[in-house]
Structures are given as structure tokens and as C-alpha cells.
């Protein structure tokens, strides 16, 4: 069983990079095309950088042309919280992690089939775990989705 809790901001300032802290805890946005995972094509899952709770799979990742990692769906939908965001004078749907309350990004309805959704996520809010490291990170239950069918 996992403990997906969030350490204090004081501890997180020591554990995270300034950009990770700005995005996850201060609702920031990293620059497009200048972030760690926008062009990552490796197989694995993406977890919350703060808590480690599983969020997205590389199997649902696609190139949206935006410069941020984009996914058609969440790996564990229960770990994603949607909130209305009107900060830029328009209605958007902000995404936050359930347990750490990290700001992840936004979801839009202009994505490809089958969902039509585009989960546009900041790399700084994520940590990537390659398939061959899932077991060691206590996430072996997700390994089977990467085996040949």
C-alpha cells in the first residue's frame, strides 16, 4: 500500500527544483518545448513529482504540437481532480493530483480519438518511471499493460 501524501512546502523546496516547485505548488506553467518530457517516447508511466501517485501512461501519450506532454486519458482517473480555472479570462479545466494537490496542467476537448481529450501536462509536475523500473518503485501492477498482446 502506498502513502501518497504531500510533504510540507518547506521540505518540498529542498526536494524539488525551483521550476517543479513553481508548477506543482504555485500553479505555474513551464515553457513549451523547453521541458523534460514533451518529446519523451519511452515506455512507462508518469507519476506526481510530489507524491508519486500514478497519473498517466506513455501508451496514452501523443504529440499535440503544443510543446508539453499530452495524453488522451488518465492512467488512474481517481488520482486526477478537475477544477474550474478562470485565471486567463476564459473557462478552462485545471487538473490537480488528488493526494498531493499538485497543479498538473489542464484538459481540453480538442484531443484525438478515442477520447477527444487532451490532457496538457507540465513536465515539472511529473516524474517518469520506465517500464523496467515499475516493480522497484512499487508500481508493478502497471507493467502488464506494456506486454505484447
Overall strand count: 9
N-to-C CA distance: 28 Å
Sheet of most strands: 6 strands, antiparallel
Task: Determine the structural class based on helices, strands and strand pairing.
Answer: alpha+beta
Radius of gyration: 15 Å
The arrangement of helices and strands along the chain is HHEEEEEEEEE
Unreliable stretches, pLDDT < 50, 5 or more residues? none
Individual helix count: 2
Q: Biggest sheet, strands in spatial order?
A: 3-4-8-7-6-5
The backbone outline, from C-alpha atoms, is: globular
How would you explain this protein's 3D organization?
With 149 residues, the protein is an alpha+beta fold. Helix content is 11%, strand content 27%. The strands form two sheets. The protein has a six-stranded antiparallel sheet with strand order 3-4-8-7-6-5. It is globular and about 45 Å long.
Give the gist of this structure.
With 149 residues, the chain is of the alpha+beta class. Helix content is 11%, strand content 27%. It starts with 8 loop residues before the first helix and ends in a 19-residue tail after the last strand.
Keywords:
alpha+beta
How is the topology of this model organized?
Layout: H1 9-15, H2 18-26, E1 44-48, E2 54-57, E3 61-62, E4 70-71, E5 80-85, E6 92-97, E7 103-108, E8 118-121, E9 126-130
Antiparallel strand pairs: 1-2, 1-9, 3-4, 4-8, 5-6, 6-7, 7-8
Amino acid at each position: 500500500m502506498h502513502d501518497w501524501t504531500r510533504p510540507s512546502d518547506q521540505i518540498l523546496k529542498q526536494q524539488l527544483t525551483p521550476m517543479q516547485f513553481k508548477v506543482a505548488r504555485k500553479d505555474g506553467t513551464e515553457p513549451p518545448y523547453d521541458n523534460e518530457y514533451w518529446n519523451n517516447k519511452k515506455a512507462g508511466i508518469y507519476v506526481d513529482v510530489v507524491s508519486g501517485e500514478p497519473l498517466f501512461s506513455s501508451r496514452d501519450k501523443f504529440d499535440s504540437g503544443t510543446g508539453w506532454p499530452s495524453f488522451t486519458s488518465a492512467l488512474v482517473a481517481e488520482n486526477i481532480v478537475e477544477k474550474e480555472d478562470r485565471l486567463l479570462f476564459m473557462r478552462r479545466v485545471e487538473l490537480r493530483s488528488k493526494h498531493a494537490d499538485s497543479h498538473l496542467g489542464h484538459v481540453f476537448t480538442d484531443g484525438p480519438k478515442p477520447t477527444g481529450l487532451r490532457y496538457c501536462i507540465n513536465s515539472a509536475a511529473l516524474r517518469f518511471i520506465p517500464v523496467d523500473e515499475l516493480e522497484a518503485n512499487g508500481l508493478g501492477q502497471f507493467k502488464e499493460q506494456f506486454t505484447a498482446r
